[in-house]
Amino acid sequence: MKLTVSGKFFAVVLVTAFATTAQAAVDYSKERTARMKSMDSAVNEILNQTGGLFRYEEKTVLKKLDVLRTELSRIPETFPAGSESDATKANIWTDASGFADAIQSSLDQVERLAKAVADKDKKQVRQEAKGLQKQCRACHGTYREDEY
Length: 148
Ligand code: HEC
Prior knowledge:
This protein is mainly alpha-helical.
C-alpha cells in the first residue's frame, strides 16, 4: 500500500496513541522507581558526606536537599488511584492522609537538615542526615511491601 504524506503522518499518530495507551498502566510504577532511585542516591551522597570524616561540602548537600524537596513533593502525583504495583501496599490509598503525613514529615526533615547546614552545626548535620534516612524507612515500613 502506498501512503500519501498525510497518510503516513496519520499512521504515526495512530501508532503513538496506541503505544501511549498500552503503556499507561505501568508508567507510574516506572516513574516512581526512577524518582525513588534519585532520592536514594541523594540520601546516600548526603550520608557519605556527613558521616565518616565529617567533611561535607555544603554546596553538594544543599543541592541534594533540593533534589529531595522536588522528588518528595512529587510523590502524590505518581501514586494515583489504580496505580498499584507489587511493591505498594493498599493503605497508600485507604490511608491517604497517613501517606500524605509521611511525605510531609520527610519534607520537614529536609528543612531540619537544611537549617543545621545553614547553622554550620556539624554535629546536628550528622544527626539530621540520619533522621532523613529514618523518614524514608518509616514510610517504606508502612506503605511499601516488605520484600521490596
Ligand atoms: C510517603 C512514602 C514514601 C517516602 C517518604 C519515601 N518512599 Fe521510597 N517508596 C515508597 C513506596 C510506596 C515505594 C514502592 C513504589 C513502587 O515501586 O511502586 C518506594 C520505593 C522506593 C525505592 C525502590 C525503587 C525501585 O523500585 O527500585 C527506593 C530506592 C526508595 N523508595 C527510596 C526512598 C528514599 C531514599 C526515600 C527518602 C528520601 C524515600 N524512598 C521516601 C514510599 C515512600
